[in-house]
Design goal:
The protein is mainly α. It has helices at residues 22-29, 49-72, 82-89, 91-100, 130-135, 139-144, and strands at 2-7, 76-81. The chain folds into 2 domains: 2-100, Crotonobetainyl-coa:carnitine coa-transferase, domain 1 (Rossmann fold), CATH 3.40.50; 109-159, no CATH class. The protein has 6 helices and 2 strands; from the N terminus they run βααβαααα. Helix 1 crosses helix 3 and helix 2 crosses helix 3 (82-89).
């Protein structure tokens, strides 16, 4: 038998019996503190990231349990929680806090440890991460560049 359990806080610990849902767990795990434009307005992620993330972890665990059962004939217990998922998603923010002593703040469209990263305006008004999106394409596409830069991506010339 494979037994799978998904809950807000898991099956053990001080909050194990408490109910919870995505928005509450985003707040409890700190996700709302790093989302949005400033510290005055904590904002939950625009999608139910913990609901979906915990479901993905659960599905992955069930697949691993099925694989184990096929090779050993033994069942497994699989457990996932919204809280575990939130802590995992906050891992580098939590490490930053642990080693710097500084609470991480809202990132907006930036990233604390990657540059360039964010929403950049272009001369043609496209905006909305146009340059960054271009960085994920092949070198041949980079050479064409955004239309607002005369067909050549000056941003990536130095790379």
């Amino acid at each position: 038998m494979i037994y799978a359990s998904l809950s807000a806080y898991g099956s053990s610990g001080p909050d194990c019996g408490k109910p919870g849902y995505d928005a509450i767990l985003q707040a409890r795990t700190g996700i709302v503190s790093v989302t949005g434009p400033n510290r005055d307005t904590p904002i939950r992620a625009g999608v139910s990231i913990l609901d979906m993330g915990a479901g993905v972890w659960m599905a992955l665990g069930i697949l691993a349990a099925l694989f184990e059962r096929q090779s050993s004939g033994r069942g497994q217990r699989v457990e996932a929680s919204l809280f575990q998922t939130g802590v995992m998603l906050m891992c580098y923010h939590l490490l930053y806090r642990q080693f710097s002593g500084v609470n991480p703040g809202p990132q907006g469209s930036r990233h604390a440890s990657v540059a360039p990263y964010g929403a950049f305006s272009t001369t043609d008004g496209r905006g909305d991460d146009w340059h960054f999106q271009r960085s994920s394409f092949s070198a041949a596409v980079h050479r064409r560049g955004p239309r607002g830069m005369g067909g050549r991506s000056q941003l990536f010339d130095e790379y």
